[in-house]
Amino acid sequence: MPYQWQFKAGETWTDFPLSEDIESDFCNPSRASFIALSVKCDPVCFDTMTCGPHEVRRLSTAPSVLMPDFILTTEWLWYWEDEYGKWVPYSSIKEMHRMSSVYSSDLEKRYQEDNNAVVLFTAGKEHYELSFKDMEQKNVHYGTPRQVRRRPEFISSVGVQTARTRYGGVSASSNTSMLL
């Protein structure tokens, strides 16, 4: 798999048994946590990267913006939360929202260069600044803050097998080393 979820027990990192289920929820920007219904455990909180008292991490393949010619890289998507609580992908036209001047790939490239940067962009006639450190965008004129989330595109175990078959059995496990 191009990702693996783990929790820290003492000094040891241990794989979660429901890694694909956690990943599925994590990839949905409207989800702030994962709650396992089939096993008794604390929720995995994506904002704090904790599970009860335990630290949580997500191991991942390299971002697709850094290695565009490789298969099973992680494609990161960027979203902002509108005034109705809906998560809108950057550079999409949704309902009454104007298309932004930046795409998820632009934001990801900049994030990989400097994850504390502030990015300026426009949407229609409005000007915004997006703080990677705060994971927030603000309207420059009105000061209206909006929460931002960076989430990977979901790929299931079936999708991984399909990609491996299509591209000659390439293994992604050797690339799974980057942390979220």
TrEMBL record:
It holds the Pfam family WWE. Signal peptide: none annotated. It comes from the Eukaryota. Residues 64-150 form the WWE domain. GO terms for molecular function: NAD+ poly-ADP-ribosyltransferase activity; NAD+-protein mono-ADP-ribosyltransferase activity. InterPro entries: ARTD-AVP, WWE_dom. One of its GO terms (cellular component) is nucleus. Transmembrane segments: none annotated. PANTHER family: POLY [ADP-RIBOSE] POLYMERASE, ZINC FINGER CCCH TYPE DOMAIN CONTAINING 1-LIKE. This is Protein mono-ADP-ribosyltransferase PARP12-like. It comes from Clupea harengus (Atlantic herring). The lineage of its organism: Eukaryota, Metazoa, Chordata, Craniata, Vertebrata. The gene is LOC122133584.
